[in-house]
Amino acid sequence: MKNFYQNKVVWVTGASSGIGESIVKELSNQGAKLVLSARRKEELIRVQKENLLTDENSLIMILDLEDYSKIKNLPKLVIKKFGTIDVVINNGGISQRSYAHDTSLNTYEKLMKVNFFGNIALTLAVLPYLQKQRKGWISSISSVAGKMGVPLRTGYSATKFALTGFYEALRAENDKNGIKICLVYPGFIRTNISKNALLGDGNRQNKLDPAIQNGIDSRECARKILKAIANEKQELIIAGSREKLGLSFNKFFPRLFTKILSKVSVT
Ligand SMILES: NC(=O)c1ccc[n+]([C@@H]2O[C@H](COP(=O)([O-])OP(=O)(O)OC[C@H]3O[C@@H](n4cnc5c(N)ncnc54)[C@H](OP(=O)(O)O)[C@@H]3O)[C@@H](O)[C@H]2O)c1
């Protein structure tokens, strides 16, 4: 990974908090030029200042993934400033904490808009530039819940499974164009994800789940993500022993695992 990010233009969504903020922190130490995206401008300015980024080497690009039709025109602003886009890390997203029978269709729609359509809208917008320059690195931050259905997250899991289908097909279409795609599946990482998770009625849960509180440090997660992108890994799982055990059980003993999952707490 040594010097891989030096002077590379890296676009990070969800840069105002958690994993995205930690990615910015790592990258600012490695001499990357950064595009910081999320909805909250004041938080992005805080992240920019705390990491001693300047207007020379960083650009704040406010975007709302839910309002994904507006994303199409943003890459040309990045090209105007930096001349190129090298790496896109589609990290912004929201989770869910509600049983399917308590969840409105509107909440499912919001999860799909933010986590899937918003995510792929940015990728589709930058794709022509990457194809033209015949190189580029795209990463999408999925979840262990994108590898196995997890209770209280029917909508969230669906959005993350959808991303896998999209990016695996995109990877096969664009390998010949020099575009590398890295799908990342984190387990429990210590961030605000559970506080921001949607309840069935669409309101925020506003609570830190114990599993998240005891999760992997977001800096460690960020370092692993950046290493995997630089090494052109296609897939990376960043998880503790509990989630790893869950993935193995789900694969080898699916019926037993369903019974276990229906009884244990997954928060
Ligand atoms: N933490 C975990 O345990 C965990 C596990 C697996 C996967 N992940 C994935 O990791 C990614 C980052 O989550 P995190 O853990 O860092 O959570 P977080 O601390 O809640 O950060 C979420 C980020 O996404 C942005 N975001 C949310 N809705 C948005 C919207 N409509 N438009 C634009 N940006 C939006 C937020 O920025 P604004 O609010 O400023 O818009 C924030 O920067 C997510 O995709 C999540 O699914 C997390």
Could you explain the architecture of this structure?
A seven-stranded parallel beta sheet has the order 3-2-1-4-5-6-7, sandwiched between helices. Helices cover 45% and strands 14% of the residues. The protein is globular. By secondary structure, the chain is an alpha/beta fold. The protein contains ten helices and seven strands. Helix 1 (18-29) packs across helix 8 (218-230), helix 4 (105-133) packs parallel to helix 5 (154-174) and helix 9 packs across helix 10. It has a single domain (9-242), classed as Rossmann fold, CATH 3.40.50.720. The chain starts with 8 loop residues before the first strand and ends in a 6-residue tail after the last helix. Bound molecules: NADP nicotinamide-adenine-dinucleotide phosphate. The site of NADP nicotinamide-adenine-dinucleotide phosphate has 32 residues, from helix 1 and helix 6. NADP nicotinamide-adenine-dinucleotide phosphate (NAP) binds at residues 13-14, 16-20, 38-40, 43, 63-66, 91-95, 114, 141, 143, 186, 188-189, 191-193, 196, 212, 215.
